[in-house]
């Protein structure tokens, strides 16, 4: 069985048309068909957790219980088991509460890139990307010449200079080496030339189609692109520029239209931890505060994993979940996770970015040149693309030799992330941009 997708190589810049969440509107016209992305063989079998109707969050689970005994009690599948916190998350088809239940929630499709704004993973009023080009010659070397191996697109250098990225990469020649970043998203173009040698191909997983091939899939068959197509590849392309030697683990939890259910996202977080991820990037969000997802994030933090979430693109104070509880000062998970909003290259709040007391940090998120499936590049806009900037910077810091295995270490790293940020300077939002804008150089300088 081969995965279905469109294979295109573009000629020139093609304008991407805004897609409304209701799925009306048009996708971009495509260029001439070319070799582009090659289909991947489907291998392995993965349980499709979307088939389960309910998720159960357990608390006070005694040490005598194991995943096997919990499965016997509840049926279904154990998604998260944390014996230290004495918590667990299970998915099954029963709404009845068991002896350890703290909450029973419907396994709804609440997590989506479409929640990031009024248009497909966009600023809320424009398409997420302003156009795409063929990959061409690939990345360009830094213009300043201060790094020997890090490369990027020249279009991004203004944003990278604003956060001191070139200096940070020069200070940390490891550039993320030895650090695995999980991208829990719509999948990744595994054959993109900009990602070769940077992917954990052995442990990728596709929860949507139930196999071990986390490639992007275009859900449209009419020559247009489905709403979520390319989102995960764009996220991965940003991480690859910020931390060029980090390893990216692709976990596909969102379908071609950018939607995913609670059980799938929770299990992917737990799986990322088991497969050695030190940073988890969640460029997705929901208006619903789901206890099962929060428990999965907390379990990851408890093992010293840092979690980065996009804050949302509604332009108001309604920071999405799980970014909202990531607030360092007031959020229930703020000591090991971070919610990220977007600013311009001059540190002004992006018009689409959420803000307010639940926003912890900001990063550049407008017209970031990054990767698009089929060997293409794209200019991406949204908090979905500010989040991986922070994920990449955390990978840089971790590659200095930090060995974090528990929540106290994650708390210390996140504390330094916030304390080294450039304080917010947008006069229109004096108290609405959290600790300010991430500073790559100032953070890694703490460890070098």
Write a structural description.
There is one protein chain. This protein is an alpha/beta fold and 448 residues long. It has two domains: 49-106; 111-447, Rossmann fold, CATH 3.40.50.200. It is built from nine helices and 18 strands. Helix 4 (231-242) runs parallel beside helix 7 (383-398). The strands form five sheets. It has a seven-stranded parallel beta sheet with strand order 10-11-9-13-14-15-16, with helices on both faces. A four-stranded antiparallel beta sheet has the order 2-3-1-4, with helices on both faces. 21% of the residues lie in helices and 18% in strands. The termini are far apart. The chain has helices spanning 67-74, 157-162, 165-171, 231-242, 262-274, 291-302, 383-398, 407-419, 440-447, and strands at residues 54-59, 77-82, 87-92, 101-106, 111-112, 129-134, 140-141, 151-152, 180-185, 205-206, 247-252, 259-260, 279-282, 306-310, 337-343, 361-364, 368-372, 376-380.
């Amino acid at each position: 069985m081969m995965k279905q997708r469109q294979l295109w190589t573009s000629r020139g810049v093609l304008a991407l048309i805004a897609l409304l969440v209701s799925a009306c509107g048009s996708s971009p016209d495509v260029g001439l068909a070319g070799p582009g992305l090659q289909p991947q063989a489907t291998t392995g079998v993965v349980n499709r957790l979307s088939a389960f109707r309910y998720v159960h969050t357990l608390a006070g689970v005694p040490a005598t219980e194991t995943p096997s005994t919990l499965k016997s009690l509840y049926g279904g599948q154990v998604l998260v088991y944390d014996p230290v916190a004495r918590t667990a998350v299970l998915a099954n088809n029963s709404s009845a509460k068991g002896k350890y239940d703290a909450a029973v929630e419907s396994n709804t499709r609440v997590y989506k890139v479409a929640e990031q704004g009024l248009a497909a993973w966009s600023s809320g009023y424009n398409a997420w990307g302003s156009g795409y080009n063929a990959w061409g010659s690939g990345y360009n070397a830094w213009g300043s010449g201060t790094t020997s191996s890090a490369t990027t697109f020249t279009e991004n250098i203004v944003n990278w200079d604003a956060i001191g990225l070139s200096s940070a990469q020069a200070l940390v020649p490891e550039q993320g080496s030895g650090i695995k970043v999980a991208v829990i998203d719509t999948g990744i173009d595994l054959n993109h030339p900009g990602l070769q040698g940077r992917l954990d191909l052995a442990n990728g997983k596709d929860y949507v189609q139930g196999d071990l091939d986390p490639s992007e899939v275009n859900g449209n068959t009419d020559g247009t692109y489905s709403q979520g197509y390319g989102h995960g590849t764009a996220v991965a392309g940003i991480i690859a520029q910020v931390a060029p030697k980090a390893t990216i683990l692709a976990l596909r939890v969102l379908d071609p239209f950018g939607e995913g259910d609670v059980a799938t996202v929770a299990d992917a977080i737990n799986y990322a931890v088991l497969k050695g991820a030190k940073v988890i990037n969640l460029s997705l969000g929901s208006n619903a505060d789901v206890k099962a997802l929060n428990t999965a994030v907390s379990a990851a933090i408890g093992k010293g994993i840092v979690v980065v979430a996009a804050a949302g693109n509604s332009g108001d104070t309604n920071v999405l979940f799980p970014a909202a509880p990531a607030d360092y000062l007031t959020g229930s998970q703020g000591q090991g996770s971070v919610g990220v909003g977007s600013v311009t290259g001059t540190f002004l709040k992006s018009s689409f970015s959420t803000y307010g007391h639940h926003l912890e940090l900001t990063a550049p998120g407008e017209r970031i040149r990054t990767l698009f499936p089929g060997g293409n590049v794209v200019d991406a806009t949204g908090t979905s693309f500010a989040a991986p900037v922070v994920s990449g910077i955390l990978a840089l810091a971790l590659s200095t030799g930090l060995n974090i295995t528990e929540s106290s270490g994650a708390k210390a790293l996140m504390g330094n992330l916030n304390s080294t940020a450039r304080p917010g300077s947008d006069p229109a939002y004096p108290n609405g941009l959290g600790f300010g804008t991430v500073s790559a150089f100032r953070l890694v300088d703490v460890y070098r």
